[in-house]
Amino acid sequence: MTDARPSTLADATVLAADPDWWRQAAVYQIYPRSFADANGDGIGDLKGITSRVPYLVELGVDAVWLSPFYPSALADGGYDVDDYRDVDPKLGTLADFDEMIAALHAAGIRLIADIVPNHSSNRHEWFREALASPRGSAARERYLFRDGEGPDGTEPPSDWQSIFGGSAWEPVRDGQFYLHLFAPEQPDLNWANREVRDDFLRTLRFWSDRGVDGFRVDVAHALAKDLTYPLRSHAELEATKLATDGSHPLWDREELDEIYAEWRAVFDEYDPPRIAVAEAWVAPTRRHRYAAPTSLGQAFNFDLLRANFDAGEFHEIVDRNMAFAAETGSSNTWVFSNHDVIRHATRYGLPDDDTFEYDLGKAWLLSGGVTPAVDVERGLRRARAATLFLLGLPGSAYLYQGEELGLPEVAEIPDSARQDPTFFRNAGVEVGRDGCRVPLPWDADASSFGFGPVGSDASHLPQPTWFASYAVSAQEADPSSTLSMYRRALALRHELQGAEKLAWITLDGDGSGGGADSGRAATDVLAFQRPTGWTVVTNFGTTPFALPAGLADLEVVLASGSRAADAPAAGDADARSVVPGETTLWLR
């Protein structure tokens, strides 16, 4: 393209200029403060990430999604941004960032940077200027200030509630309030303001020029807002929060199309074009607006993340999202864990939960991880099976740091050590997300489990003693470990990947195969084939399933279960044709 320009600070020639690299990429999310600490202060940093690039290469990921690394007071884990075009000094410098991205690119790994456009921090220079300026000023117009209500103007403009609890309006001393959908330290920006829009276009170019390959867009469905008076009540907002006509005053409004069309124009200035993936918690029928090629190009679907370990649920979710991808020309995203949710190795060890907000998991966290009891072995078994199912699907796979170790959620964090604002603003209602953000265990025998340098035992969130058995050092030499399974799966995924299609295989079952009751188990089993002949079979039930003729003759190249269950001795045809309960096989 005529106005395409390569990165100016990172070597753009190291990676192939493939505009479709993202469509079936394995993307590894790094929460930088909890990944690796190079200087021993207990906080992960950019140099720590650079030091672990060989690990990422051996793991086999195609890209890294880096959670916010910008200057921040950490009122919300870095999602309260002081400066969108700099690095938090606690994490490093811009030079450290350039070194990190150069190391990733030299290793063939791309970088997706988290960007937080809905709100800045209350320490951002714009917001400090707004507080120092009078009502009606240009500085205040960058945010969403409104006059107070009531006889003396001391009541908030509405009864809206913050996502993190409490009022969504914070008073300032002159009788006005500002809107914050999240923490008070995160004032919402006014995206109807041209200055706000232009500044974010500069930010997109700033990081793209440094070699960033794409962006994960935080709360992408919230930027446009309608604050026309009279403001609706909180009850009305809750009743219509999944509206599908763009009418909600805060979420998923039609004006977003224009905003993201401008972003797309910036992305297309580069060769290859920068990519973006939207975090948009919207009705499935609205997701295509963010995934359209004229918009961000891809949007997370969190459907599998919310699903029970159930064949029917998984089948319906895959079918629905495959249809959406075909309609938009986008690519599917598949995800089980991230920095905001209970790790799926723990979720799958809890009883099934059909609530949208995952109330059972919240109750379990509130109990300190006591009630209901978690079946740890079953949770990991199901998580491994679900992961191989996900990695077999066409589309991109988003993995969260530590899931390749089978890490469970950490529930036993003392109140005094917690950091998540949801804990402080929703006391007795929610514990928050700290349990999935505990620093990773690298070395079972080292202080801070190798999170920091030798001799450092600092860790910004406490690591439980049982982390030792999940450490990289405890797993890397074990061919049956979860880490080994991920490494093998990602290597095979590169080898076997074909067109973004799948064909479901009907499994009737005939009751044969080492006594497995395949007729009864067939409703618990899903099987699909990719265009290369790669076949994925997942038994969601507990009853072993006998593979029908044709599949039973294929080679098992990978299995989620133990070798004793999934890789019988050569020549044992009956055992080889059986899929154990809660297990996934890859066949070819």
From TrEMBL:
SUPFAM superfamilies with a match to the protein in the record: (Trans)glycosidases
InterPro entries reported for this sequence: GH, GH13_cat_dom, O16G_dom_2
Protein name: Glycoside hydrolase family 13 protein
Cited Gene3D superfamilies: Glycosidases, Oligo-1,6-glucosidase, Domain 2
Source organism per UniProt: Agromyces tropicus
Similarity field: Belongs to the glycosyl hydrolase 13 family.
Superkingdom field: Bacteria
Hydrolase in keyword set: yes
